[in-house]
Amino acid sequence: MIPRSGVRNNLFNAQDLRRIRALGLRPSDVKKQLEAYRRGFRSLTLVRPCVPGDGIRSLSPAERRRLIRLYDAEASGHKMVKFVPASGAASRMFAGWYAAADRGTFGNDGLDRSFFRDLDRMPFVSLLKQNDGTRRMLRKKDVRAVLQSILLPDGLNFSGLPKALISFHAYRGGEVRTALEEHLREAADLIADRRGVCRLHFTVSAEHVQPVKSFLRLMVPRLEESCGVRFHVDLSLQSPSTSIVAADGQSRPFRDEDGGLVFRPGGHGALLQNLQAIDADLIFVKNIDNISPESLQKKILPCKKALGGLMIETRRQVYSCLRQLEQKSLSLPDLQAISEFCRDALSADFPKEFHKLAAREKKQWLFRRLNRPLRVCGMVKNEGEPGGGPFWVLEKDQSRTLQIVESAHVDFSLPQQAGIWSSASYFNPVDMVCCTKNYRGGKFILEDFVNRDAYLISPKTRKGRELLAQELPGLWNGGMALWNTVFVELPLAVFNPVKTVYDLLRPQHRTGRAFKSSSAGTGPAKRPAR
């Protein structure tokens, strides 16, 4: 039985302690994790969804052009990095195909015929047809053999690759591009500096480091020649010290069949350490699977520049306000102007008694409110995609803040909260620009701006046994909860995710010869919710 005061002091044996230290953790860290299981996670309190004019900024055509001009004029003078979480394996993309490979069928002749029709429109079909044996399998409509040639190491090995190395797009002339290559090409048009240097940072899993490095060694020289830039590409791993111990139903350490502690990855919130390590003025953040073919990239590029221009403008204004607040004397009109900027540009919710504070106390409050990391986040109209969205959230001190909220943080047993969630009309595509430096050029300690109560606990199974798993506050959810936040409306065209292989058949992902040859075909089935 766990004492009311917390987790027992004698939970760990010598083997446990060695394992804990090998991960870069301390026993006290693991005890805190177990305490979190005991407390359970807290739901967020939604006030209302964000909409244009109330939490989301809509850019007029004139504003958009002005911000693009600002970005074109000034961005190359900043050190910029594109940060792409790319740790995910591609196996989830092909979940439905694994079972069919085992059975040798999708269930009946009609579904099997549909599979081959869809396969003929996939961007990677030309790679399959390069092999004589696979061509024979395709002619014979051998479901098992064809799927094995796609998924297994003897073939394309998609089951063993990261999503970054999956062929996403086919072009006229037979060219096939991976998600990683498309991200490099997009970055070349967006974040090259004055010297033509284009910096990217990908987070990858340990087992995928070598395949990604091999691909980059082959691809980067070709792309540098065709794009006219020099790529600096860094890779990083999720730190083992962000692992979290699994627990049983009584919040005790879950142990494997040999009696050892079971640790699990801390979720994408663990990537906050990777983000912390990046030295840049502007950091563009985008998921590996949200990438478009070249023709659509060109149309989306002005949206990206407008997002970057808004960051440059907002950051300049924040820095200017902070430097004014450092001065010993500040006029009342200047103090009022800074307050209005916080309210209008950063959606700051002021204390009810703010107007009664002395000038010195107002300056202190404004300085604390402004001196934080800054993020400018694109938001798109929600057309049924699963995932988080922008909301006004009620904090413990009764203030209201802008937050990106996932459904897992909503208490749907409360009708009011369920109603607020269901009334939301905007979606988070994870398309943002971040500034992690303060007005003096130093780096913020990002851990200081995390809502530590925003972790999640969910039931899982391991070899048939039930356990509880905990995730750190999400990178762009609780991990950035205390940042200064600007939401801006972007067109839906910027959001083109690939969660299942059939998403590659969406019109946004088909271009050139592949798009023309299949224009009369049926579209892919609607992607199931995550």
Key phrases:
single chain; 530 residues; alpha/beta; ten-stranded mixed beta sheet; three-stranded antiparallel beta sheet; 19 strands; globular; disordered N terminus; disordered C terminus
Describe the structure.
With 530 residues, the protein is of the alpha/beta class. Among the domains are: 303 residues, no CATH class; 67 residues, no CATH class. The protein contains 16 helices and 19 strands. The strands form five sheets. Strands 2, 3, 4, 7, 8, 11, 12, 15, 16 and 19 form a ten-stranded mixed β-sheet that branches. A three-stranded antiparallel β-sheet has the order 1-13-14. A two-stranded antiparallel ribbon has the order 5-6. Helix 10 links the parallel strand 7 and strand 8. 38% of the residues are buried. The N terminus and C terminus are likely disordered.
Rg (CA only):
25 Å
Number of discrete helical segments: 16
Number of strands: 19
Query: Structural class of the helix and strand makeup?
Result: alpha/beta
Helix content: 25-40%
Share in β-strands: 15-25%
Secondary structure elements and pairings:
Layout: H1 14-22, H2 27-39, E1 45-49, E2 51-52, E3 55-57, H3 61-74, E4 80-85, H4 95-103, H5 109-119, H6 125-128, H7 132-140, H8 143-151, E5 167-170, E6 176-178, H9 179-190, E7 197-203, H10 209-227, E8 230-236, E9 244-245, E10 263-264, H11 272-276, E11 282-286, H12 294-326, H13 332-346, H14 359-370, E12 374-381, E13 389-394, E14 400-405, H15 415-422, E15 426-427, E16 431-435, E17 456-462, E18 465-471, E19 484-489, H16 512-517
Parallel strand pairs: 2-3, 3-19, 4-7, 4-11, 7-8, 12-19
Antiparallel strand pairs: 1-13, 5-6, 9-10, 11-16, 12-15, 12-16, 13-14, 17-18
Helix pairs in contact: 3-12, 4-8, 9-12, 12-13, 12-14, 13-14
